[in-house]
Amino acid sequence: MDKEANLPLIGANVLIKGTAVGTVADLDGKYSLDANANDILQFSYLGMQTKEELVGNRTVINVDLFSDSQKIDEVVVTAMGLERKSKSLTYTTQQVGGGELTRAKDPNMMNALQGKVAGLVITPNSTGAGGSSNILLRGNKSAWGNNQALVVVDGVPMSNPQTSQLAQEYAGRDGGDALSNLNPDDIASMNVLKGASAAALYGSMAANGVIMITTKKGREGATRVEFSSNTMLENILNAPELQGTYGAIKTGDQLSKNSWGEKITGNAPGKDRLSEFFRTGATFTNSVTVNGGTEKTQGFLSYANTSSLGIVPTNDFYRHNISARESFNLFNNRLKVDASLSYITQSGTNRQHGGSYYNPLTGLYIFPANGDFHYYKQNYEVFNPGRNLYAQNWYTSLDDFAANPYWVLNRMKTTEGRERFIGSATANLKITDYLNIQGRLNVDDAKDKYDQKIYATTNEPWSPSNGRYVLENLASRQFYGDIMVNFSKTFNAIWEVNASIGSSFMDTEIVRTALDSDKLNLDQPNMFTPENIKGNGHNKTDNHPRKSLNSVFGTAQLGFKGMVYIDITGRNDWSSALAFTNNVSYFYPSVGLTGLLNEIIPMSDFVNLLKVRGSYSIVGNDVPAYITHPMYSMTRGNLSPNTKAPFLEMKPEKMHSMEFGFDVTLNESRFNMDFTYYKTNNKNQYFEIASPLASGYESYYINAGDLQNSGFEASASYRFDLTEQLSWRTDFNSSYNDNKIVKLDSRLGDGVDLGSGSGLHFKLKEGGSYGDVYGRALVRDENGNVEITEEGNPRLTDSDQNYLGNVNSKWQLGWGNNFTYKDFSLYLLFDGKVGGTTFNLTQSYLDAFGVTQVTADARDQGGVDIGNGKKMDAQRYYETTAGKEKALGEYAYSATNFRLREVSFGYTFRNLLGVSKNLDVSLVGRNLFFIYKDAPNDPDVSLSTHNAWHGVDLFGLPSTRLYGINLKATF
Q1: Contacting residues for 772 by C-beta, under 8 A, at least 6 apart
Q2: Contact 112/104 with Cβ under 8 angstroms?
Q3: Would you say 501 and 554 are in contact if contact means Cβ atoms under 8 Å apart?
Q4: φ and ψ of 726, to 5 deg
Q5: Contact 456, 526 (CB under 8 A)
Q6: Span of the secretion signal (predicted)?
């Protein structure tokens, strides 16, 4: 029986321990099995605690199983893969079941965590399937360094090199991230270690928190097969609102670039160009897993494939995942060996470029309503007899801003692929009942290839006259190993001691080779080979960074009568990135204390858990390689001298972190709540500044700065057993983060520019916050009226350093609801953000071209209202205020939004394929609609995972709604 739901567990496994003899429970939860008096029966069910019973003289054995997620004494996986009782933890964690990742699948499984974990912000790039996502816990902490959480798979830090990201306004591609390679059907659970204290044992890699992933493994019992199939369709949710009433000015056969012409009196063939261009996207995911085994050996095998057709024609993505895992229990369970191997291959074409260059959306959006879009779709190229080749065909003269979108898709085509092998082995030797030695080895090898062929007559400066050939290869390899001695014993039923000491190493190597004809041009047009590059057929750029991190660490937990626990950890790292300095070795400790008040003070049985906790830690944040002693590099076939001064006084960033909070569980675990307040100060920030001319270098690095994040996280859940067959579980989470730049070095002058473009500046200033954005704005009088220049134009500020807003929302909210009635289930997830600013540069550019609905409305109304009852000509107003480096303060919108993030309605056909062989069918949806939104763009989609350019829409893909069907069969 499911004790909490008071329902029979249909298909529960009943196994005679140490054998492969067993059975499964029927529709009423009943079973029958021949067993001897000395046999031990194991009762198990996915998501429930396993229970054992000695048969003895009994002929009827009834058992109640409890949900693992509700178990007060449940064991959770913590840093370094160590298992600890949940109630003993001195810091906050939050667990997520593997089913949360597969309910409504996303090609990047990390996006399925949106709205489900307090303090976790997942922001996907607007680049489509296979794109990267930014994973942020408790705010940005490093100005130039890494801010993303560390992902650990089965105790091993995961290599996550990003091939490229957009870092400026014109162009950039999203090379994807390694996390998007994982198969969600292989995931058993996740445990999010939110603070530096929780992740201290991982050292500098984990200063931004850790997402612990535990993958599935084989189980004792008969072979079990699971098959799942998911189909998701994708339509545009949020696109620019374009007008169809005013066209471009026609001169001969040419149309003007912008749409400030007369009102269209007849047909407007270009009005519906968005519906003609975008298609319904579709993603198909199929997965099969096989597992089973005996007491001595258990196996797990899985295969999955994903095929995704994006909303942009020719944008396709394919991935295959194969995983095998075998576990052995040897020498009377004294030696446990676990080995796994995964192979991933993926390929894709025309993943969306951000920015204005190389982007089909710029030409699509600015195309005039009175132009024949369908003609240019069918005739994106025409034969040029003078050059004896097909040339780009477009409604207006070519410039550096926009091209025929179908030329971009077909004659500037990109292809990319990845092959990845991940192999792991773990051995655990039991010395005594309380002492064991464990060792792990892992290798992660990935190879990426990127190819772009740009044909002759593409817009300059995108390409020279004969075309352009780009070929990049990136190979990354990470070796990781650790060895630990673990001690766990209870003395006199009073003192609990859990202690571990160990050592680890990690060696990371990346080899990047890039070939780009660029300004050299091709000798023969449209011949894409290295030998056809003018001047130097081996015009390569080579980059070969390598980094090593060696560590020793230790942790000890002391518990007293199950009432009070104290945690102490220490770790020392030796980083090759700090070579040639006196700080190559650095130590950081943590300490935590928790007290179970319900154990210390007699309380009603209604109170299952009342815990208070607190912790403090100092954790380093490592720096990139070659800052302390910069190297020469090979650029376009030439040796490039180093322009940065060596930084022999370099220190690692040091994060001082504290948190305290409480956990409450009531009414037989029906009600759960936790609250945490935290504060982190990241000191020794490193910055690059200009060098004096006499130094011989262009720039040098300094340690300076103190970035502070403080806030709280709260989550609560309750399970309502409304009837014997109807239940409702509701989960709510909320977080608040306030970032402050406490101090910057005076040598940094007016602050630090993290990135800039199109008139926006992402700057750090003392007293400000990470994510502050500066630019130009309209000048208004005290009554809000727009000031006018002598020429009759709106007045803009002379300075581009006016504060326009901060791209980070301080409040995050999530509310999940799970209803079950008999074999029906309904899941609804709402989430939202409060505060922050999003910048819609797409809207700004399109207003300048006169193609948006707001510009048409202004013309219909006789002009733009500028105050004092006056109106200004719409073209004069928007060409002055909108576009590159104009009044971008007018395009800053509130990022506050609430939406229906995820929905699932399903039914389980029990025993459809035999006893305990079920079929689950569900209708699912993601990102279905906004409940509230102020901005014209989706504030939760970003241009890049770069430290700048968050919260900006610059011709990124429109956000989409997804809906489809899930099938899952168990054999």
Answers
A1: 762, 763, 764, 765, 803, 805, 806
A2: yes
A3: yes
A4: -120, 125
A5: yes
A6: none
Given a contact cutoff of 8 angstroms between Cβ atoms, the answer to whether 361 and 849 are in contact is no
Three-state DSSP class for residue 181? helix
**Residue 355 burial (C-beta neighbours within 10 Å; 0-12, 13-18, 19+):** buried
Q: What is the 3-state secondary structure (H, E, C) of 820-870?
A: EECCEEEEEEEEEEECCEEEEHHHHHHHHHCCEHHHHHHHHCCCEEEECCE
Contact 224, 291 (CB under 8 A): yes
What span, in angstroms and rounded, lies between the C-alpha atoms of 477 and 369? 51
Query: Which pLDDT score, from 0 to 100, does residue 319 have?
Result: 95
Average pLDDT score over residue span 723-733: 94
Interhelix angle 853-860/874-881, rounded to 10 degrees, is 140
Confidence of residue 28 (pLDDT cuts 50, 70, 90): low
* Torsion angle of C-alpha atoms 566, 572, 577, 578, degrees rounded to 10: 120
Answer for the pair 411, 389: CB distance below 8 angstroms, yes or no.
Answer: no
* 107's tokens: 């090609």
Which residues, at least 6 apart from 583, have a Cβ–Cβ distance to it below 8 Å? 650, 651, 652
The size of the chain, in residues, is 971
CB atoms within 10 A of CB 751: 18
Residue 760 DSSP symbol: E
Q: What sign does the CA torsion over 164, 167, 172, 173 have?
A: positive
Strand, helix or coil at 684?
coil
Q: List C-alpha distances in Å: 271 to 366, 367, 376, 795, 928.
A: 11, 9, 14, 33, 26
Which is it for strands 952-953 and 837-840: parallel, antiparallel or unpaired? parallel
pTM of the model: 0.89
d(C-alpha 158, C-alpha 476), whole Å? 12
- Preceding peptide of 525 cis, ω within 30°: no
Q: What backbone phi and psi angles, to 5 degrees, belong to 419? A: -125, 135
Q: HSE-up of 639 (CA within 13 Å, CB side)?
A: 3
- The pLDDT value given to residue 69: 44
How many angstroms separate the CA atoms of 259 and 271, rounded? Answer: 12
**pLDDT, tens only, 377-393:** 999 999 999 999 999 99
Q: Contact at 8 Å (CB) between 101 and 112?
A: yes
CB 831, CB 816: distance < 8 Å: no
Q: What is residue 70's predicted lDDT score, i.e. its pLDDT?
A: 44
Give Cα separations from 86 to 94, 176, 959 (angstroms): 10, 35, 39
pLDDT at 600: 95
pLDDT at 404: 97
How many Cα atoms are found within 13 Å in the side-chain-facing hemisphere of 128?
A: 31
Beta strand residue intervals within 435-525, DSSP E:
435-454, 468-491, 495-516
| Other Cβ atoms closer than 10 A to 24 | 21
**Residue 784 burial (CB < 10 Å; 0-12/13-18/19+)?**
exposed
Q: Decide: 439 and 482 in contact? Cβ < 8 Å.
A: yes
Q: Which pLDDT belongs to residue 318?
A: 95
The residues, any chain, with a CB within 8 Å of residue 560's CB and separated by 6 or more, are 494, 495, 496
Amino acid of residue 592: G
Residues β-bridged to residue 451: 415, 471
Helices 874-881, 841-849: inter-axial angle, 10-degree rounding: 140
- pLDDT over 70 for what percent of the chain? 94
Over range 301-306, report the average pLDDT. 97
| Token pair belonging to 327 | 């576990």
- Domains of the chain (ranges, CATH numbers): 1-66 (2.60.40), 75-163+172-261+271-291+299-345+365-771+807-836+895-970 (2.40.170.20)
Say if residues 777 and 810 touch (Cβ distance below 8 Å): no
Using only C-alpha atoms, the chain has a radius of gyration, in whole angstroms, of 30
Amino acid at 536: N
Please answer whether residues 893 and 838 qualify as being in contact, where contact means their C-beta atoms are separated by less than 8 angstroms: yes
